[in-house]
Amino acid sequence: MQATPESLAIWPYQFDVRLHVEIRESLTVTLDVTNTDSKAWTFSGALHTYLHVGDIRETQTSGVGTEYIDSLQNSRLCTQHGLLTLTDTIDRVYTQPEPLITVQDPALARTLTVENQGHNSAVLWNPWQQGAQSMADMNDEGYLHFLCVESTLHAPSLAEGITLQPGQNHQLVTQITSQAQ
């Protein structure tokens, strides 16, 4: 995707953005962003990964780090330690995740790994029952069967995102692997 008259009307910069998808033993998704303008610009973004799980209440997630911004508590900075087991709605930006996030999925007897590159954070999200019931495109029990684990270039504002100089490139990569337990 490149700049068009329509895109320039809302964001006045030249760019080239490509999404690469590779399916082998793992799924690899790469968002490749290049500044083709004559001046620097700043951006942020995320690869929204919805992982199918057997039962969200049984999953355990590791590798997200200890500090997170809780979007459900007015962006309050919080900490956690150990494995993450979900019991309610989650909408968190983990600010120092490891490159490899692991989701143990005992209901489907597997381990999912999400390996991220080019990111500065990871988002975990699940609307839980009340959120699922309010979504027209999700059945009421849909929350039980997914966890969103996003490779993210988080920025509190666009001005605080990643700045690319003319000709500079940035790649945001996520690789998802499933292994039987």
UniProtKB/TrEMBL annotation:
Keywords: Isomerase. Its EC number is 5.1.3.15. GO terms for biological process: carbohydrate metabolic process. The keyword Isomerase applies. Signal peptide: none annotated. The keyword Isomerase applies. This is Glucose-6-phosphate 1-epimerase. The lineage of its organism: Bacteria, Pseudomonadati, Pseudomonadota, Gammaproteobacteria, Vibrionales.
